[in-house]
Amino acid sequence: MTTYTVCCFRRRFRPASNEPSEAIGDVFQAYAHGDGTLGEEALRRFLREVQGEMSDGDLEESAREIMTFAAEQKLLKKGGGGLTIEGFHRWLCSDANAALHPRRGVRDDMGLPLSHYFIYTGHNSYLTGNQLSSGCSEVPIAKALLDGVRVIELDLWPNAAKDDVEVLHGRTWTSPVELGRCLDAIKEHAFVSSPYPVILTLEDHLTPHLQAKVAKMIKETFGDTLHLSESETMTEFPSPEDLKGKIIVSTKPPKEYLQTKSNKEESQNGDTEEDSVWGEEIPDNKALMDVGREVSDQDTKRYVKEEEDMEKLAQVGVNMEYKRLIAISLTRRKHDMDEDLKVDPNKVSRMSLGETAYEKATTTHGAKIIKFTQKNLLRIFPRTTRITSSNYNPLMGWRYGAQMVAANMQGHGRKLWLTQGMFRANGGCGYVKKPNFLMNCDKMFDPRSNLPVKTMLKVTVYMGDGWRLDFHKTHFDKFSPPDFYARVGIAGVVADTRMEETKVIMDNWIPTWDHEFVFPLAIPELALLRVEVHESDNHQKDDFGGQTCFPVWELRTGIRSVRLCGRDGELMRSVKLLMRFEFT
């Protein structure tokens, strides 16, 4: 029995049981022999009919792996018998039976131009916390690269003496980090998690003298891994396959930064109506505390001085060594969307838009954005009013073909979980091929149109376990076991976006829901499956119990093990769900 103390009384609850749910037991019995076990032939039938494994080779390999797993765990019936229900359940819950194939690798064609891919993109990659007063460091850069991020952003500013370069969020109270440390972190971690190219976007506010210094540092640090374009203009981008193991610099001449009104000056508050479907965002208490810390008088004086110094940086030249580093040029915006989105048949480039300007453009120039991104690169970045480093809905960009939807990797929450879910696709290499309909020049896709349903995804949530191993017994409730419920839904085009939830299972560390959901999907190629678990609390905000997000198009059909992540996107040690996925 599990005992909880309430004042001077003791409450006793049945111990948690991790036995298979009734629904799992029914599946097992449908294939079991008379002796209550599964033999290899029955197992192959289960793999074919429930798990959707069709080829004879896959069936044989999977059946052998399961029987080997069961033998090692001593889960076969004594005397050389078949798989017991305990062994069947243990295998279903194992990582070998994950919702995404545990040995999945790169599956997309990587030989197409860069513009054909969504690219895992970071924003202000050097920040450790909020956008206003947090520290700058090479540590978040290294972590982002290890997580598969392929686009790193650095903001380059002169130091106080104007004789060296610092990386910081300009015109704020963020503390700087040395450029050399950031470059070293990129060099060391760039190709640990993925062999495909890293794009280094630079927002520089430097004199030609300091540009020359940066050019020397970049060349000396990256050496042969630095990709240098043979020409200032390209008619087509090279492919990720062509650029394997390369680091690519993308920026525009700094005098254009000074002449162009910064999109980062945009401000707009509030989230979209679509976001409300997912539920109220889970607050990041640490980020809020960081923003609230007191700013010193010295910081304030420095901020004012930098404002004055920027007025004096009217540069008249660009260092040519620095200019030669730029392999992907950033186009200077004309602030006329018709002009900005014109496609030059003789030249490709990259354009950046703030989320507010971009969102407005989708309502008036949606088809032109899609056409522009069929050949050129488009980067969308968060508005500056997101001082806690929160993020916006990345699907807003992907629906129209925007390749580089920049995310604050330290801004944990539902929007970043979607980005992490998207880039679990294609082996987690940081590049995901865009759906063909976004590259169709003859018929432009309209994500706002009335789209017909292509397929139905049926999702069953059987049960969950692991919280009892990862948390103290009073973590969720001081006086009783937790009351868990699951939320399951789809993020995609507006027509597909939904969120549903199970009933609450009271006082149980191993909840069994056996709940079935059906999601009609118009565009499964852009659909992400969202899963969350919460602990119900009648008197205050529900406690967070874990989450994950998967690309629907890579889900393995059948009964699968689903490991949950914490709020920061890192896998929890023991917590997982048992779910089933069926397409009809």
Entry summary:
The protein is an alpha/beta fold and 584 residues long. Helix content is 27%, strand content 22%. The chain is built from 16 helices and 21 strands.
Record the strand order, biggest sheet: 6-5-4-7-8-9
Helix content: 25-40%
- The CA-CA distance between the termini, in Å, is 44 Å
Radius of gyration: 26 Å
The major beta sheet can be summarized as: 6 strands, mixed
Globular, elongated, flat, extended or rod-shaped: what is the shape?
globular
Strand content bin: 15-25%
Number of helices: 16
- Determine the mean pLDDT: 88
Content-based structural category? alpha/beta
Number of strands: 21
Please tell me about this protein's structure.
- The structure is a single chain.
- The chain has 16 helices and 21 strands.
- The protein is an alpha/beta fold.
- Helix 2 (40-49) packs across helix 3 (56-72), helix 5 (139-146) packs parallel to helix 6 (179-189) and helix 6 (179-189) packs parallel to helix 7 (208-222).
- The longest helix is centred in the middle third of the chain and has 21 residues, at 355-375.
- Mean pLDDT is 88; it is low at 260-270, 283-297, 299-304 and 310-316.
List the helices and strands and how they pair.
Blueprint: E1 2-6, E2 9-13, H1 22-31, H2 40-49, H3 56-72, H4 85-92, E3 117-119, H5 139-146, E4 151-158, E5 165-167, E6 177-178, H6 179-189, E7 198-204, H7 208-222, E8 247-251, H8 254-259, H9 285-291, H10 297-311, H11 320-325, E9 326-329, H12 337-340, E10 350-354, H13 355-375, E11 377-381, H14 395-398, E12 404-405, H15 414-422, E13 431-433, E14 455-465, H16 467-470, E15 484-491, E16 498-501, E17 512-521, E18 528-535, E19 543-551, E20 558-565, E21 571-583
Parallel strand pairs: 4-7, 7-8, 8-9, 10-11, 11-12
Antiparallel strand pairs: 1-2, 3-13, 4-5, 5-6, 14-17, 14-21, 15-16, 15-18, 18-19, 20-21
Helix pairs in contact: 2-3, 5-6, 6-7
